[in-house]
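Entry 14. Ran structure prediction on the chain below.
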Amino acid sequence: MITILTPTPNGYKRGCHDVELNIRIEDARKGCHQGSCDYDIAQLQKKEYIKEQLNSIPLDTLCSILDEYGCEFDEGDDREELEGIVLWLACGDILELDYFENGMEG
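Output, structure tokens:
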């Protein structure tokens, strides 16, 4: 899997499987943190700019991304749940990049 993370005016862009997710850094921080992130991911999925991006990803691509990460899922799983997992993974990647580029204060 090739993952490219690049800064953009709206935060960071996570590119993988010809998919780009533009997620603001403050939203990435809300989506990936210590403890359970389920509620926060569900709230982020309601944001129009994130919802539109996730809805545009074909289901087979969502499954391919999850498979590359080694996630266990069933083809019949709820699409919204799969989108939430991909969003959580993207938020984690974005925060990791931000940490390495800007340090803890970034």
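The radius of gyration is 13 Å. Will compare against last week's run tomorrow.
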